[in-house]
Prior knowledge:
This protein is an all-alpha fold. The protein has one domain (9-166). Helix content is 82%, strand content 0%. It has helices spanning 2-7, 10-34, 41-70, 78-96, 100-103, 108-111, 114-135, 140-166. It is globular, with a radius of gyration of 17 Å.
Amino acid sequence: MDKFFKKIPESIRQGVFFGLNSGVITTTGLIAGISQTVKNPLYIIIAVVSLAISDGFSEAYGLYISKKAEKIQDNSHEPLYAFASLLVTKGLIVLSFLIPFIFSNKLKYFKNLYWPIFWGMAILFVLDLNLSIIRKENMLMYFVPHVFILVIVCLLSRFFSKYLLKS
């Protein structure tokens, strides 16, 4: 797998890794918050699809602009490749959190946060494993902070959604 990631252009690799990371953390946080406040699964579906579209385009274009600003003399297609790879990756990752709805229309997988946390950690594990392999570094150096960030985002999102509901 490390040979695969080393062969793809840097800008595409950057978009893929950024999209995986951002897709997992933002979607898990969104689900942790919104799942505590809704009774209709359609609201989660709408929120996740909206996130895939709005956050995907926002971050992809932000990366595009950032790469343009980073190398002002560069007229290559690298920023466009980073844009496209981030947009596709983030969109697919965000939408993948809706997999339980293929099998069941119940919110229990989201309210108890088992699915979002399990799925998010599985994706981050694969991301961190590949990054550690291509950089020849210890995987825990990436995975432990990822788990910490994911748990903090879930706890804060869940806490504030419940707190605001009581207000």
